[in-house]
């Protein structure tokens, strides 16, 4: 039976982006004005043919055609035909994804501890314990996608007793949580769960936003830990080129506009989170679905694409107080890098970490720019830094993930 899919979420946004791109091309090619089209933010202006490079290329070709005695209208028509072909491929890719029969099917796991919707899942394994902390805004199973392609099961098979803190969907109580409530509350209570006491000191690993939560917990409870791994974890939200700072400040500037939604629902809803992420690379979603249209639907590559895309669209809303802290405090005021981020009243300072650390930095990450993660590594005492030739998600779940991350992480854990 084919799953009922709503994605890519929010679907109207991605369809309208394709329309916006075509309108921008038509304006840029207008024979009367030749007016460049730019929505403003660099992230929204770098798609061919509305990017600066695309406009320069179009101008060069048009001038060459005129010099050769060819009417420029033919070039304009050719560009618009190409855009129409790409739009047809996008629709074909979206339709193929939504009717694809693939589903994630993994065995259920023992639950060692639970509070509200948050569960501590046991992946087994013979060896020292490793507790993995995912982000609050995505489902935890990105690290356990499919049989034979699961970071958590690979780590369990490679010498660690692997435990996953699955935050779950925020219930009514969790909608009022701050970052302190999650870190000094649920995360620390999970660390103190009776089932973990016989296992001894833990290694703690955090992915993306989960890395910041894990770091704060490690600073508060060093006696429970033997090491800390931070995977694609941001620190300096304004680091990198000027565009990184501009994007961060743009996200923060949206906070007053979404405040009515936060107050009405108690959360930052999934579709709004997806819209904010889309703003980091707004044209990528259409590009990947155009590529999917040409894949063999029965092939392993297509199956993996569908399972990963299902995960991307199976998001979790963010508690409203956390959304305010993240957008305003992290992205806007850059509180972590300025040593102004506090958990339970105490400043979170990586320089005070008392256990060995491992920092994985994906070189092609658009969500956490490498400079942001490297700023964290620079402040940690003696951190082992692993450059990863992958993107934010590909690092953990891509086709090369085992070689570029899982195995190096296994080796580091074995050396603790």
UniProtKB/TrEMBL annotation:
Xref: Pfam families: Abhydrolase_1
Name of the protein this chain belongs to: Poly-beta-hydroxybutyrate polymerase
Signal peptide: 1-28
Source species of the chain: Teichococcus aestuarii
Record-annotated AB hydrolase-1 domain positions: 128-394
Alphabetic keyword roster: Signal
Membrane-traversing stretches: none
Coiled coil start-end: none
């Amino acid at each position: 039976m084919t799953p009922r899919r709503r994605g890519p979420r929010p679907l109207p946004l991605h369809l309208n982006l394709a329309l916006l791109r075509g309108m921008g091309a038509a304006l840029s090619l207008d024979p009367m004005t030749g007016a460049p089209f730019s929505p403003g933010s660099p992230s929204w202006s770098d798609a061919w043919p509305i990017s600066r490079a695309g406009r320069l290329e179009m101008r060069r070709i048009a001038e060459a055609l005129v010099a050769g005695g060819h009417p420029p209208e033919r070039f304009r028509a050719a560009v618009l035909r190409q855009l129409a072909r790409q739009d047809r491929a996008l629709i074909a890719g979206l339709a193929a994804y939504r009717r694809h029969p693939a589903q994630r099917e993994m065995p259920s796991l023992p639950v060692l501890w639970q509070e509200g919707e948050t569960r501590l899942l046991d992946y087994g394994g013979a060896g020292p314990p490793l507790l993995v902390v995912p982000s609050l805004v995505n489902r935890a199973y990105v690290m356990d996608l499919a049989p034979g392609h699961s970071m958590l099961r690979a780590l369990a098979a490679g010498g660690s007793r692997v435990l996953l803190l699955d935050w779950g969907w925020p219930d009514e109580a969790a909608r009022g949580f701050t970052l302190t409530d999650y870190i000094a509350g649920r995360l620390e209570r999970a660390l103190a769960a009776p089932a973990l006491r016989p296992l001894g000191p833990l290694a703690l690993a955090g992915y993306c936003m989960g890395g910041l939560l894990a770091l704060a917990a490690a600073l508060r409870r060093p006696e429970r830990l033997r090491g800390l791994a931070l995977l694609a974890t941001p620190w300096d939200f304004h680091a990198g080129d000027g565009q990184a700072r501009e994007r961060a400040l743009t996200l923060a500037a949206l906070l007053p506009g979404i405040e009515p939604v936060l107050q009405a629902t108690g959360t930052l809803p999934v579709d709004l989170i997806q819209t904010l992420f889309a703003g980091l690379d707004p044209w990528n979603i259409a590009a990947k679905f155009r590529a999917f249209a040409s894949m063999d639907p029965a092939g392993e590559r297509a199956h993996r694409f569908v399972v990963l895309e299902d995960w991307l669209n199976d998001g979790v809303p963010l508690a409203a107080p956390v959304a305010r802290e993240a957008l305003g405090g992290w992205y806007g005021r850059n509180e972590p890098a300025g040593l102004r981020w506090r958990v339970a009243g105490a400043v979170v300072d990586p320089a005070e970490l008392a256990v060995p650390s491992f920092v994985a930095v994906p070189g092609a990450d658009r969500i956490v720019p490498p400079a942001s993660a490297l700023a964290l590594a620079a402040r940690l005492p003696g951190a082992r830094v692993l450059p990863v030739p992958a993107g934010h998600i590909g690092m953990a779940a891509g086709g090369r993930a085992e070689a570029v991350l899982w195995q190096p992480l296994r080796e580091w854990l074995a050396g603790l």
